[in-house]
# Entry
Amino acid sequence: PEEATDYFYDLSRKNDYIKTRAIAKNIVFDAPTDFGDLEITINLSKPEKDPKAIAAARNQKTNTYPLSQLAIENEGYLGRLGYPARSNHRVIRMTLGGEPWGFQYSPYAYFSEHAIFLLAAHRPMAITQRTFTNLLEIVHTFPHYFVGSNADLPIVGGSMLAQDHYQGGRHQFPMMKAPVARKVTLPGFDDVDAGIVKWPMSTIRLTGDTPDSLINAANLIAESWKQYSDETVDVRAYTDGERHHTVTPIAYRKGDKFVLDIVLRDNQTSKQYPDGIFHPHQDVQHIKKENIGLIEVMGRAILPARLKTEMQDVKKYVLDQPNEMKDYHKAWADDLKAKNDFTADNADQLIDQAIGKVFARVLQDAGVFKQTADGEAAFDRFIGQLK
# Structure
């Protein structure tokens, strides 16, 4: 498997499908936080997307060809005005769960060997037991890769909800390095080690030798979460008949064992948080306002290109130099000035560290059960009712 992916990845770079020169321009650094080193990237090739536009696109009908940039029909497509050419694009066919799927790489990789697994049929994303089966089948086939699925609801989902697909690759994310904070027991799953991960987003880690047991345990959690409410911590499964709960699942290997991380998601909105109760809150949206998708759930920030120039003006501001800093950074920059003694030598490092802390806050906002006594007790209540 490793030789096969090495060959295909090398081919995809050499034929310029993977835009290595563009990717090399992205800004990447690690930032220490209470949850370990988070990975920060300022992606210069990815446009910033409006979460409301992402939600609207989910059900939008189109008669164009290909139906989306994730459709398998992109292979070899010559392109048109406003739609990229894919004449150098190739998709490896594979079967998952008895259905035809494709395996390709992302042209603008967010991490090493950023792979995409896409359903050949045009079907919207849905997290079901089939999802967990497919993810573990992929890491059985490619034991050197992780693979995960974005959630299947707006606000907490990825940017391509209209086409069922997964993302994977050869990278160990911060969440995968995070330890289990406390073990839990899942009734009827004696062969599964389960625990709550020390992570800002509410994550249950399942580890074991038997994929079927992990699949059934994951399905128990996901199906129970879909119906679970706890008003004391603003958790509601439904309002006015609209479902709010789903999960973001990630699969990978740890030695001979299989691991499934199940991240609980809730896409409610409120008057106080119209963009999402468990979404980056208004005071951090100057850095990150987009959906918190699979990659960011695992601790790698994909931040908008505008920050490259905007942070230079923030730097000038904190150094009391002439600047054109955006007003939406002012409260944050004033707080940084009050807490730090900025010099020309340390300003870049301090601002990078501050961006990392903002991203940690973003993940905490997106976490359903908070790292407080009440939050942990609420998490335990959810675990306790699983049966």
